[in-house]
């Protein structure tokens, strides 16, 4: 009866929604000829013939439209007005004297960190994961810089008692008591022996020798995984709405393993060891691993031990992009996460003395610049340093900078530090310009001086104006929060890329998740920029990095674990990967913001995570400890090296042929031979066979395979071409044969293999590389 009422209520809600949507569409169609625009005016240019600003505004408006009226006149937060215009009228108004910018109005919605909505979780997660009691039994362990427990993000209202299986503790220490934990934040520990053995005792006047987070990074990642919903959250009014983590019903435990001087392997391993002992289900590490063999990588070793106990491990891919082969944390038992953007931005607008306007981003919240245009200078021309364009500390000459806006290139020092350098020299603002390495990527920061960060194309246009005008001028205006930015997602320029240096036969990263301009909780011990000079204090901060994308996957893994407690870490990884998407709704491939071109599996792995689809993947590529042991044998690891990684005595069978490519992984990477002749003109072919096994986690069904490829240099044959599953957990094996022609060394190409029934598409990327 209860189920019937729920269904009727759902149907009624759906009908109301459809009816409302239809009426909205009808109204929008009626008024689609005109849109609302916000016009920024440069007050200092108002002609003396006008007695006041309103008269001037109205005259400017009437010059492009006799019928348009002002909706509002703005006199305090900025100077200008709003009105409804056609696109042609708006374009015409842009060219009028005194008009700084004409901005199309955005549609605001009260939801943030915004990633739940962007990922399809905008409704209560209970609609997708109805058994909240199962979800609340899941514990995510976060290894990071600690936690700020007073935040509302750790409110435990409505949560049941701590699971009886939990064995963790709330460690008492500097500024941290047993009451700092509750039914949401169920455990907190710190590990510093390795750190102190190098740097000596921790100075508790500077840093808390306890789980207390004095940095902010750990609080941000932990609230992203499981943070409780907090209404009216924002950073200085940016990204306003209700902030929440991915798995609001799950619990979180904190393991502080990183300190001012870094994260030491011994402390990392101690934290991972204790986390597994305490009973975590998921481990989240937004920490860079070493690019070394698995038996020399503390994170890989600790992760293997956790995986063997049934713990899912998510790690950040690194921020070494857009260069190739920049990944860390590439062990196949780790889920390696790259970063993509959201459909949200924080616009800042640069207006130049030549009348041109450009857009960038900023989270600046202080006193705005004057509407008047100000002198504009290039850091490289007003510096005593050979790297003056980078605006390094102490490099700018005050006499050449005072009262001016300075253009600074990205690189060497932090983005916000450059602004302080400008401020210290007397500059009034900064335009932060991208270089080739960051392309069109726009990362917003809470600058301490009026700043607009701009992409490479805009940077070049601004510099062209500066170097061609004898008296260049500019000003900067700030708009706030903009939603529905397209295309989205795009792969972040900083996100580390493949191929996998350690094992080219394993495609990494595994997938991407939101990692740019993410709003989440913050420490009360540091400002949003993390700079010592930043005395502002906030409960939420907006920052970027694969450190931010990793906890999204950790939290989503917790949701899947709650919904499917019987799934192994490999099954959860498979569900997240095989249901990820690689194209936009228009069918075009996800873009790489660094190049503006389509991204590849070396950039995004299996694609961008799609958690709702991951709940019901149909089939999974499962893997056990035995599979990973076979993988290490294929790498020719000795028994000693295998034990170093696995803590298990194991000897590879003599005479048995082990293949790295046969690891039951949800993606394919196929290293191929190049010809020995010049130019790759040889007709020699390479034949490679990979074997995979699929496990049915859905209903009985027959799946048929399809393969799409961008190259004719590789023939791909799948045997068999269909798989019929008649019961849950049934396993079926198939073989893929790749017959490849020789290509020049360094050539790469990509394909995609998909198993489909009437409801599911189980997708796997394929990457080819000729060496």
Automatic annotation (TrEMBL):
Residues 375-462 form the PA domain. InterPro entries: PA_domain, Peptidase_S8/S53_dom, Peptidase_S8/S53_dom_sf, Peptidase_S8_Ser-AS, Peptidase_S8_subtilisin-rel, Peptidases_S8_3, S8pro/Inhibitor_I9, S8pro/Inhibitor_I9_sf. One of its GO terms (molecular function) is serine-type endopeptidase activity. The active site is at 144 (charge relay system), 217 (charge relay system), 547 (charge relay system). Residues 206-218 have a biased composition (Basic and acidic residues). Residues 1-26 form the signal peptide. Residues 136-607 form the Peptidase S8/S53 domain. It comes from the Eukaryota. GO terms for cellular component: extracellular region. It is found in: Secreted. Keywords: Glycoprotein, Hydrolase, Protease, Secreted, Serine protease, Signal. One of its GO terms (biological process) is proteolysis. Residues 36-111 form the Inhibitor I9 domain. Its main location: secreted. Gene3D superfamilies: 2.60.40.2310, 3.50.30.30, Peptidase S8 propeptide/proteinase inhibitor I9, Peptidase S8/S53 domain. Belongs to the peptidase S8 family. This is Subtilisin-like protease SBT1.7. It comes from Camellia sinensis var. sinensis (China tea).
